[in-house]
DNA sequence: TGATGAACAGACTGTTCATCT
DNA sequence: AGATGAACAGTCTGTTCATCA
């Protein structure tokens, strides 16, 4: 994974958080960037979190560099003739392994937040 | 509060998180910086989070600038004659209000993490 | 050495700009 | 306008440096 750490000790980074969601979506079926972004924006809006397009692209690029995703330019034969970058899972094992890592970090973060709520409000 | 935001949409910032703990500790009794740091380090070690001294100082400075804490240089008459910066609550109402704000953000973050665990692992 | 604080540097992310269809 | 990507800029935080008792 190129020595990049997703966690620096405190809470999980947005990048890793998005990667997790991207993998889960793409596992179900291939998507392209802005499509995924719209889905994420809608999903998180109630929580006051609005991911930006560049961060989603960076997450997709990272996952591709790591060989977890593969990217294919596809000519959309719909109403418009336009190329989009469609992503699909390239390495299911790696994807699974990465998600497992993130899950561990999410669990840790949840415990940390719970602790803070308990320590400061009870 | 000088227009500074503690939350930028994703998860709570370390600074705000530490401020919360600092206020709770200082509410009980006045402390000085490194003393608080040691307490925090011990408390979070099991969670893989190791706060650094500069971040704690910055948090204390912020709270002082905002008028929530007051700082007093105290000559320690113990084994060593040395000055430490002891903090105490300057404005109980403001402290309470700030903690309330942070609590709301912590709750939001916890929901976001729960959602992520649910959306991606079930 | 313990304590405080500032300065510096790097990581992360939001905003803007550029390109192409 | 929709889609992608790069470049730039600002914020947050970790490391280092400086000072003082």
From TrEMBL, chains A, B:
Question: Which SUPFAM superfamilies does the entry link to?
Answer: Winged helix' DNA-binding domain (SSF46785)
Q: Does the keyword Aminoacyl-tRNA synthetase apply?
A: no
Task: State the UniProt keywords alphabetically.
Answer: DNA-binding
Question: Molecular function terms in GO for this entry?
Answer: DNA binding
> What Pfam families does the record tag this protein with?
RTP (PF02334)
A GO biological process of this protein is:
DNA replication termination
- ATP-binding listed as a keyword: no
Out of the domains of life, which is the source?
Bacteria
Function in brief: Plays a role in DNA replication and termination (fork arrest mechanism). Two dimers of rtp bind to the two inverted repeat regions (IRI and IRII) present in the termination site. The binding of each dimer is centered on an 8 bp direct repeat.
Oligomer status and interactors: Homodimer.
Q: What name goes with this protein?
A: Replication termination protein
């Amino acid at each position: 994974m190129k020595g990049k750490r997703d966690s620096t000790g405190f809470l999980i980074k947005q990048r890793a958080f998005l990667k997790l969601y991207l993998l889960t979506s793409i596992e179900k079926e291939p998507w392209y960037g802005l499509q995924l972004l719209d889905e994420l924006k809608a999903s998180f809006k109630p929580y006051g979190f609005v991911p930006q397009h560049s961060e989603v692209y960076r997450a997709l690029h990272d996952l591709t560099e790591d060989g977890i995703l593969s990217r294919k330019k596809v000519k959309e034969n719909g109403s418009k003739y336009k190329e989009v970058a469609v992503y699909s899972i390239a390495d299911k094992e790696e994807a699974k392994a990465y998600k497992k890592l993130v899950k561990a970090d999410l669990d840790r973060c949840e415990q940390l937040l719970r602790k803070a709520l308990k320590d400061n409000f009870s």
